[in-house]
Design brief:
By secondary structure, this protein is mainly alpha-helical. It folds into two domains: about 60 residues, no CATH class; about 40 residues. The chain is about 55% helix and about 5% strand. A two-stranded antiparallel ribbon has the order 1-2.
Length: about 120
Amino acid sequence: MHSAGVTVCGVETTPPLSPTPLADVFSLTPSPPSRARLQEKNRINKEGELVVSSTKHRTQKKNLEDAMGKMQRFLEGAVESLLPIEANPVKEKRMKKKLRAANEKRLDNKKKHAMKKKERRRKDW
């Protein structure tokens, strides 16, 4: 008699990716961007190596492609974090206007508070 169970495929589907040192990944920059380190801190081991793996698919080839895609997205995000942010003149003007209005409101409240205290100090009541 055979046991009626589900047979599990014994083929290893996780791609054999070795951890990659971040210094090798970012060979053009002096050190890996700190933003990239923070975003992917769970994928970086104590030796400073980026560990990427995938078990999403049933075949090793597809998992390898998925892992390489993850690495590509990580690199694109890290490179993007290095690029300077271009100034938007419309947004800058709007921000300056908001800052100016907030400052005026703060100064008005300060004047009102000072007047209230000054009225309390008056001796001719």
